[in-house]
Amino acid sequence: MDGSSQAGPMPKPLPGNSALLRFLTCGSVDDGKSTLIGRLLYDTKRILADQMVALEKDSRRFGTTGPDLDLALLVDGLEAEREQGITIDVAYRYFATDRRSFIVADTPGHEQYTRNMATGASTADLAILLVDARHGIMTQTRRHAFIANLLGVRHLVLAVNKIDLVGYDQARFDQVAASFEEMASGFGFASVRAIPISARYGDNVTEASEQLAWYGGPTLLAHLEQVDLVDASAASGQPFRMPVQWVNRPDLDFRGYSGTVASGCIRPGDPIVVAGSGRESRVARIVTMDGDLARAGAGDAVTLTLADELDISRGDVFAQPDARPEVSDQFAARIVWMDDAPLLPGRSYLLKLGTRTVTASVSTLKHKVDINTYDRLAAKELRLNEIGTCNLSLASPIAFDPYEQSRTMGAFILIDRLTNRTAGAGMIKFGLRRATNIHRQATSVSKQARAAQNRQKPCVLWFTGLSGSGKSSISDLVERALHAQGHRTYLLDGDNIRHGLSRDLGFSQPSRVENIRRVGEVTKLFVDAGLIVLASFISPFRAERRMVRDMLEPGEFIEVFVDTPLEICKARDPKGLYRKALAGEITNFTGVDSPYEAPEQPELLLEGGAFEPASLAERVLDLLRVRGVIGSE
Amino acid sequence: MLVRNGWFDPRTMDGAGPPGPPECCKPDMAIPTRAATGRRWLASRDALRHLVRMTSHLRRLENESILILREVAAEFRAPVMLYSIGKDSAVMLHLAMKAFHPGRPPFPLLHVDTTWKFREMIAFRDQTAARLGLTLISHTNEDGRAQGINPFDHGSSYYTHIMKTEALKQALRQHGFDAAFGGARRDEEKSRAKERILSFRTAAHGWDPKDQRPELWNLYNTRIAAGESIRAFPLSNWTELDVWQYIQAENIPIVPLYLAAPRPVVHRDNMLIMVDDERMRLRPGEIPETRMIRFRTLGCYPLTGAVDSNATTIEQIVEEMTVSRTSEREGRAIDHDEAGSMEKKKREGYF
Ligand SMILES: Nc1nc2c(ncn2[C@@H]2O[C@H](COP(=O)(O)OP(=O)(O)OP(=O)(O)O)[C@@H](O)[C@H]2O)c(=O)[nH]1
Ligand SMILES: [Mg+2]
């Protein structure tokens, strides 16, 4: 950022942000990442006397270095990490020399914790990739180089560590450095450099080493102090963007829009456009508590007031009218998956980009990446720590720039709607169409008009439950009764759909998700047509039932859980499917080798084992009367 | 010591006297080395040169903190700011004023009052809330008070658990807060260095350090289920030095106890404990003496160690810091309990 325009009491800072370097250490397990950071902290005098005493105590108890202090214990701060002698989660540490301040993220090498490495890389300008001089480049080294590049880390350092264990051998260093250069050349990092070090003994970390006299380059720290951080392409001519984070309205006289400038810069009088609505105005003031500013640049947290009153809320994006961001509800992106539950195309997630959160799903999973060869592989799902390229489809259009152009405007996270976990991290490649160019066909006869003519409130009765639980029998009875009373209905049944609309789908998890998505879309059209829809599907996953619920208006989705014990369903086995599944003739059968997630709060729970279908159907009709779906005579 | 309107205003301070000598202590174990170390890092003579550069660094920190404050305020139903009256709280509160200017921060302040805080802290707290026109909720664990839980009879660990951790949970529950800002910094302690900026807590306020939500870029996942909450740490990336330099640059009022003055203290368990009121129980042989001291961190007076110091201005504190060889946590009895104790307390719901 450039703070020189700010009217605060602080002295004028130097231009540019080269005073601070954010970097991470990464690489394979046990290659010495935490030891290196401990060494940097120690050598730069960041370890204070009482911390030294604690380190000494810890080294005796948990140390992996015999009689010596174990510097990794300065960074591995969790009990579990100290007991296991590995890093589990990112640690952030801070140190400074007289040239630069540093924020360093120490990330875990263990494959299981790859997502934590990606976390550390997302804000870093430089990555120190460590290798053990004895072992050279490993799978995890390749994976981390790939992720660092994917997340936009611009500078890469290969630290050939434990050089003491190969007798400070130049030939070995050259060998490792050569295979590294071959690997790194394909990526397009702004700078790449190999440096021999011993983190444990401190050779060539902050001080040059006599044992490494053959090495003519800078020490690791000298390199960190010198590396040129000015990104020429980014510094000049980035277009102005600011996501609105907070509408500041303390009283009737003031209406400001607070946010952090994502890119470019802005001055009072400059024209701006609200990216989504396309409405334009001019900046009146740039307000801060230190007084109004003459200019705000990338990274500045400010409050803008506009010359005109526009309807603007959190999630909108201010942009420069002659260089607007793309606005679309579909784009292509790379995704790093971070959750134990795999990413399934069609499943709905929450997507957060900037200050905006929308519902989204992966419409196509184009391929995933083989981390050894960097080859593209076909994939039906993305599992924990896998990386893939996808098309995403959003519930409403959103403003963005490609990640290459802007880390702020091009990055998003995906959140699991049931567990609320941060399930994936995404980087946008490009938009797939401009939503502004497709217009929804406006129709003159409305949903309400169609519903009124049918004398009913359109809705869907969604019957879910195990195979053989009685869904079809009950829904059939309900439809007959409704029809007899003159209501307009349609019944969608799993087996029938599978013969037509979803003929191309199997029974794996991704296929089941896609099947329900299609049924959901069809349901939505029928509800729009004013019908009472009866949908009878095993639909074993909560997330998909939730997805269909979200496609409809509130109150339209009525979940009916036909709760029949598995033992009874097995005994009934009307189609002989349980027998086949138990014999292993069919796989992915719900209740046998595929899970059923029972609804947590269904609108209606029917005990299928305890009552006859006719009395259960009567309870459904009662509910429809209570909810005013049908008249009560 | 100049105190105006009850709070300390650094602009009116003048002070003199060199900083106290750095404390030194050398461990017995060897630091493995084969390379000679001869370079000096950030010795005090470098501090001034350093200062110019640190300001763009401080601006970055300020901007990041404001982003976090606004994001949490925008996305949570009922946020609150834990105000512990110390220097970090002072900076956090100042940043909150900036984040919502010209409006007010859209959340109240919460102070967990153990009833054993320094008297000057409580006075400063009330003046600060009044000066800024903010709502301040003071909460005490009344069960603990009724039982007479105190740091002398019950030990620092049990006392802290009842009067701080449990009290905090009570207050959050009672008011239904779903997000609480705290002024903790990652450089304070090794388990803090592992914590997210938005730290997720279960319905029982527990922290699971091994299963934290990945936190990429500055995209914060603010989704929680009913009963769950988050602790938000806008100062995560600040160091102690950053905090003091910012206080200096921004003229932020702080409790006068941070500046050296003659105060009555006793030597106890390797700490200098101030005799703040008549409830202080003296052990046999302890006679209060008046020494020139100040505090690097503030808490409950019977558990907070002072340092000998002549630093009577913020400038002198910054100067003293650059040569200090001990961490601020040295002065906190509750942090000495056992290895990994901070992590353990946090898993139980401590800030
Ligand atoms: N001989 C020698 N040993 C080293 C060196 N660097 C690290 N080690 C040792 O290698 C072991 C692993 O070091 P760590 O720093 O914990 O490795 P890490 O890369 O952080 O491991 P994870 O974070 O768990 O992936 C420790 O016993 C270190 O003392 C070195 O330069 N030379
Ligand atoms: Mg490690």
TrEMBL record, chain A:
<comment type="pathway">
    <text>Sulfur metabolism; hydrogen sulfide biosynthesis; sulfite from sulfate: step 1/3.</text>
</comment>
<comment type="subunit">
    <text>Heterodimer composed of CysD, the smaller subunit, and CysN.</text>
</comment>
<dbReference type="InterPro" id="IPR059117">
    <property type="entry name" value="APS_kinase_dom"/>
</dbReference>
<dbReference type="GO" id="GO:0004781">
    <property type="term" value="F:sulfate adenylyltransferase (ATP) activity"/>
</dbReference>
<dbReference type="InterPro" id="IPR009000">
    <property type="entry name" value="Transl_B-barrel_sf"/>
</dbReference>
<dbReference type="GO" id="GO:0005524">
    <property type="term" value="F:ATP binding"/>
</dbReference>
<feature type="active site" description="Phosphoserine intermediate">
    <location>
        <position position="539"/>
    </location>
</feature>
<dbReference type="Pfam" id="PF00009">
    <property type="entry name" value="GTP_EFTU"/>
</dbReference>
<dbReference type="InterPro" id="IPR041757">
    <property type="entry name" value="CysN_GTP-bd"/>
</dbReference>
<keyword id="KW-0067">ATP-binding</keyword>
<dbReference type="GO" id="GO:0070814">
    <property type="term" value="P:hydrogen sulfide biosynthetic process"/>
</dbReference>
<comment type="similarity">
    <text>Belongs to the TRAFAC class translation factor GTPase superfamily. Classic translation factor GTPase family. CysN/NodQ subfamily.</text>
</comment>
<dbReference type="Pfam" id="PF01583">
    <property type="entry name" value="APS_kinase"/>
</dbReference>
<keyword id="KW-0808">Transferase</keyword>
<feature type="binding site">
    <location>
        <begin position="465"/>
        <end position="472"/>
    </location>
    <ligand>
        <name>ATP</name>
    </ligand>
</feature>
<comment type="function">
    <text>APS kinase catalyzes the synthesis of activated sulfate.</text>
</comment>
<dbReference type="Pfam" id="PF22594">
    <property type="entry name" value="GTP-eEF1A_C"/>
</dbReference>
<feature type="domain" description="Tr-type G">
    <location>
        <begin position="18"/>
        <end position="233"/>
    </location>
</feature>
<dbReference type="Pfam" id="PF03144">
    <property type="entry name" value="GTP_EFTU_D2"/>
</dbReference>
<dbReference type="InterPro" id="IPR054696">
    <property type="entry name" value="GTP-eEF1A_C"/>
</dbReference>
<feature type="binding site">
    <location>
        <begin position="106"/>
        <end position="110"/>
    </location>
    <ligand>
        <name>GTP</name>
    </ligand>
</feature>
<dbReference type="InterPro" id="IPR011779">
    <property type="entry name" value="SO4_adenylTrfase_lsu"/>
</dbReference>
<dbReference type="InterPro" id="IPR031157">
    <property type="entry name" value="G_TR_CS"/>
</dbReference>
<comment type="similarity">
    <text>Belongs to the APS kinase family.</text>
</comment>
<keyword id="KW-0511">Multifunctional enzyme</keyword>
<keyword id="KW-0418">Kinase</keyword>
<comment type="function">
    <text>Proposed to provide activated sulfate for transfer to Nod factor. ATP sulfurylase may be the GTPase, regulating ATP sulfurylase activity.</text>
</comment>
<dbReference type="InterPro" id="IPR009001">
    <property type="entry name" value="Transl_elong_EF1A/Init_IF2_C"/>
</dbReference>
<dbReference type="InterPro" id="IPR002891">
    <property type="entry name" value="APS"/>
</dbReference>
<feature type="binding site">
    <location>
        <begin position="161"/>
        <end position="164"/>
    </location>
    <ligand>
        <name>GTP</name>
    </ligand>
</feature>
<dbReference type="InterPro" id="IPR044139">
    <property type="entry name" value="CysN_NoDQ_III"/>
</dbReference>
<dbReference type="InterPro" id="IPR004161">
    <property type="entry name" value="EFTu-like_2"/>
</dbReference>
<dbReference type="GO" id="GO:0003924">
    <property type="term" value="F:GTPase activity"/>
</dbReference>
<dbReference type="InterPro" id="IPR044138">
    <property type="entry name" value="CysN_II"/>
</dbReference>
<dbReference type="GO" id="GO:0000103">
    <property type="term" value="P:sulfate assimilation"/>
</dbReference>
<keyword id="KW-0547">Nucleotide-binding</keyword>
<dbReference type="InterPro" id="IPR050100">
    <property type="entry name" value="TRAFAC_GTPase_members"/>
</dbReference>
<comment type="subunit">
    <text>Sulfate-activating enzymes, NodP and NodQ, may be physically associated.</text>
</comment>
<dbReference type="GO" id="GO:0004020">
    <property type="term" value="F:adenylylsulfate kinase activity"/>
</dbReference>
<keyword id="KW-0342">GTP-binding</keyword>
<keyword id="KW-0597">Phosphoprotein</keyword>
<dbReference type="GO" id="GO:0005525">
    <property type="term" value="F:GTP binding"/>
</dbReference>
